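sorry for the late reply, my laptop died twice this morning and i had to redo everyting from scratch. anyway the thing you sent over, i finally got around to it. pasting the sequence first so we're on the same page, its 195 residues, then the predicted structure underneath. double check i copied it right bc i was rushing
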Amino acid sequence: MKSKVAGIVFIIGSLYYIIAEAISAAYFNDSIFNTYVFHTISELGIPLLNSPLFWLMNSAFILIGLALIFSNFYRFRDFIVKNKAIFFILTLVTGLGVIIVGLIHGGNPLTLGYHALGAIMAIFGGNVLLVFISRSMGEFSDFQKITLSLGIIGLLAFWIMFFNMESIYMPVFERLSVYPLVIWSFLAGLFLVKK
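ok and here's the structure:
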């Protein structure tokens, strides 16, 4: 029963995030293609005229952060066989980072530093968490291999993004570094529901 509850929370959190971002992008003050390619995810959460559904995007950040913390602590932790303390720390860093991004938007110069810190905690921390999870479970099955692949893709995209912050395509690298954790949350949900 615990596995199903945690799995459903993971699935809801990840699907809500994808749907909320798509809807927020559709109502952003640009074409949906341009929004995904030339505007960062954080821009969708800034309460200005460009993003009338900023509250929807911010709620998605908060929900997926809470889902990650809840499901990892409530049930997924039972599948981690070594270094559980590091798993808990990385889960908190990642989950709280995503929540900070949702609570403190990037459009205010006074709070931009906190938003950036939350983003690094969420993106870098989340992808390190995936790599760590893949090496800390009992067996290196297909789920762990997918987890490792997602973490590596996310870290590579984060690295490219970090050194290309001025590029007009930086939002593409941002999404490539964020989506691995969202995809993993959905897959982890399926993994737990099947258990």
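Residues 7 and 190 are 6 Å apart (CA to CA).
thats about all i looked at so far, will dig more tmrw
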